[in-house]
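Bench notes, afternoon.
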Amino acid sequence: MKLVVQVKLLPTPGQASALEATLRACNRAATHASAVAFAEGLKDRNGLQKKVYADLKADFGLAAQPTVRVVKKVVDAYATLKANLRAGNLGPSTSKRYRTAVGTPVVFRPGAAQPFDDRCLSWQYDARTVSIWTVDGRMKGVRFACSPDQLKTLVTYRKGESDLVQRGGTWYLIATCDIPDPEVYEPVDWIGVDRGIVNLATTSDGTSHQGRRLGRYRRWQARKRADLQKKNTRSATRRLVRRAQKEKRHATHVNHQISKEIVSVAQRTGRGIAVEDLGGIRDRVRLRRDQRGTLSSWHFHQLGQHLAYKARKAGVPFLEVDAAYTSQRCPRCGHTGRANRPDRDHFCCRRCGLAGPADVVAGVNVRDRARSAWVFVTAPASSP
């Protein structure tokens, strides 16, 4: 499996200036190459490289290998755009967002990430420094900081490109590591996980990870944003920019904590992890206007991704099962009905009288469906 390791660069002021000039030059060159690719319909790497290679080296001061990386970045950007259009992520073909994406070339921000391969970036792990190409020449001895576990992963598994990124005045290198997948064990049972808004994750064991604190934090952030937007001053705009990703980082941290705890319990008890398949839920559900913001800020997909990759890294079996009626079905008698769930928090079967927290019942149903699904997943293929 591929994993990314983010290390923090600690450049001197002179090194930071060279890195910033390099990033801006590469992105100006990428924007120029993107305009050429859009105007002449060159979306393949070889054709675009033949067209713009000499211009990028002469006009933007790039060396040979960074020029190749810039062209590859442009080609990848158009491939990603094509995939998003095909998947409908930019809306229907009649929408303004779709027409803008199709009718204009891709533009790269001055501070957008730039990939470096082993020809223009080398690591010195013992000294914890890197040597990187810049527009001012090869720059050696740029220090970086990371945890011992990250350093061990870099030394053992780093492979391919590393991206140079600047965020909030801080420099990072994001390295790709190719880690071998451990063998997935045969689970003795399953942990069903029900994801929600009030309770972010509730397991079939009865463990509940509440979202009340995260909800309060999001409301507080919304009030702060509204106050700053009302001021409409340059200082307020700068503060809004600094706070832009803060809420997202906090939610990601919470999801990491929840997924790490669930995976560790599953690994310790020899069980697998099962979650509901919630793909397309925003298209299926119609909400009141005051509920749309809450659903849009619900990081259920990210929590599922964290559970999936952490389980894969630990060798824990992971399944997604059908989410239909998991909170309305009785796990004892199988009776399914909306009346079984009189309110959000409680479940009471109208046939057999089984009662309990609704989210725990949903987790039990997810666990039961995983038991049945695993039989089909591991069944030997029938001979023709």
